[in-house]
Each structure stands twice: as C-alpha cells, then as structure tokens.
Specification:
The protein has 104 residues and is mainly alpha-helical. The protein has three helices and no strands. The longest helix has 40 residues.
C-alpha cells in the first residue's frame, strides 16, 4: 500500500522554498514572456512608424485645405520656387526646436 503524499504549502513571500517552480517561472519568463514583450514592442514601433508616415505625408489635414502635407509642400514649392524660404519662420524668442530626436 502506498502512502498518500500530503500537501505542503510554501510560505507567502518565500518562493525559494520551491526550487522547481522558481526554475519553471524563470524559464517561462526568459523563454516566452521576455520574447513576447520584445515582439509586442517591435510591432508597436512598426505600427507607430507607419502611422507617423501616414499622418505626416498622406493623410489630409483640414489646416492645409484638406490636402496631405506632401501635396501641400509640393504645391508650395511649385508656386514659391523653394519651400524652405516660403514656409513661416518662428519669430518668437521663446520658441525652441526639440534637441532630441525620436527614433525607432
């Protein structure tokens, strides 16, 4: 006859009392969760880059007469000859351009 195995609970906050579970949790975290999180972040970066391109180049803006920014810039270049000199320049001393670049 076999002796039944009794339940033995580990103390709360003492995961080191069960090395098998800690090993499993570590492997799960390293092999699956960290990889999944990286994939999620990479996917989010790709989607953000696509959205930013669409917003800055393709999507019509009401402030540009419902033209896409790329279309508005081409129209300005065509009518003014050179867009950089024709675009409004900030004359406010408090205006500062960002010093850091956003990247993917």
């Amino acid at each position: 006859m076999t002796t039944p195995v009794g339940w033995h609970y580990i103390d709360p906050g003492k995961p080191q009392q069960n090395a098998f579970i800690e090993s499993f949790n570590g492997s799960l975290r390293d092999e699956l969760l960290n990889e999944a999180m990286r994939d999620i972040l990479d996917d989010a970066r790709r989607k953000l880059a696509l959205w930013r391109y669409d917003y800055n180049n393709v999507r019509p803006h009401s402030s540009l007469g419902n033209q896409a920014p790329l279309e508005a810039r081409r129209a300005l270049e065509k009518s003014e000859g050179s867009a950089p000199g024709a675009l409004a320049q900030p004359n406010d001393e408090e205006y500062e351009t960002p010093t850091r670049k956003l990247s993917l």
